[in-house]
Design goal:
This protein is of the alpha+beta class. It has an 8-stranded mixed beta barrel. It is globular and about 40 Å long. The chain has a single domain, classed as Sortase (Sortase, Chain: A). The chain is built from 5 helices and 8 strands, in the order αββββααββαββα.
């Protein structure tokens, strides 16, 4: 099973996502509406990886568009579980979460990348939203040191609440290779850094803290996606 997952993660998934041909990043589909002060580009934390072949692995842009079948999660009480709400109280973020669309992302909701994973599945969960007021704009406007340590709450469709702690903020990112390569649970949040067509994105990475039952009323907000 390990060999099959490594093959899927390092070869098949990036190739399938790249083969989709059109990505939200390439189309510049996540935009912002207010100017922000420049912040030094954070250097991504190095990950030790072994080079399996001299042939370079195709890179994928973010978010990916395609229909790959992910490897089975290591464990999940509900195989149909999906994220339904995300809140970062310290940054005044509280949004319903829906499945990412095939076209331009709507406003007033966050979205998950269906090709990756969901809370409790021991891999990367990837949520993204526009950098607009009432959405993920604070991820863009708040300096990295002020974000680190903040708690991210993610509710799911099976009435569970997962808590994560922000540990890293990356600016100017153009791929999601590290999210695809994750071999343990991580929550990734993405928003844009400039007008439509700007390639670099902000990625915020959080590590799991705990999970437990949630009030169904909290786990099922009224999502009202709006064309924008």
């Amino acid at each position: 099973m390990g060999d099959r997952f490594d093959f899927f993660r390092t070869r098949l998934l990036p190739a399938l996502l790249t083969a989709g041909g059109v990505t939200l990043l390439a189309a510049g589909l996540l935009t912002y509406t207010v100017p922000v002060a420049a912040e030094p580009v954070a250097t991504a934390s190095p990950r030790a990886t072994a080079v399996a072949t001299p042939t370079p692995t195709p890179r994928v842009t973010l978010p990916p568009i395609g229909t790959p079948t992910p490897a089975p999660p290591t464990a999940s009480p509900d195989p149909n579980r999906v994220a339904t709400r995300v809140r970062i109280a310290a940054l005044d973020i509280d949004m319903p979460v829906i499945k990412g669309p095939a076209g331009y992302p709507p406003c007033d909701v966050a979205m998950y990348i269906k090709e990756l994973y969901q809370p409790g599945q021991d891999r990367a969960i990837y949520l993204f939203a526009h950098a607009r007021p009432g959405m993920f704009e604070p991820l863009l406007k708040t300096r990295a040191p002020e974000q680190r340590g903040s708690v991210v709450e993610v509710w799911t469709s099976d009435d569970q609440l997962f808590l994560y702690e922000i540990v890293e903020v990356r600016r100017g990112q153009t791929d999601l290779d590290d999210a695809i390569a994750a071999d343990s649970e991580e929550l990734w949040l993405q928003t844009s850094e400039g007008p439509k067509g700007t390639p670099g994105k902000t990625q915020v990475i959080a590590k799991p803290l705990s999970s437990g039952p949630a009030d169904p009323a909290d786990a099922h907000p009224d999502a009202k996606p709006r064309a924008c």
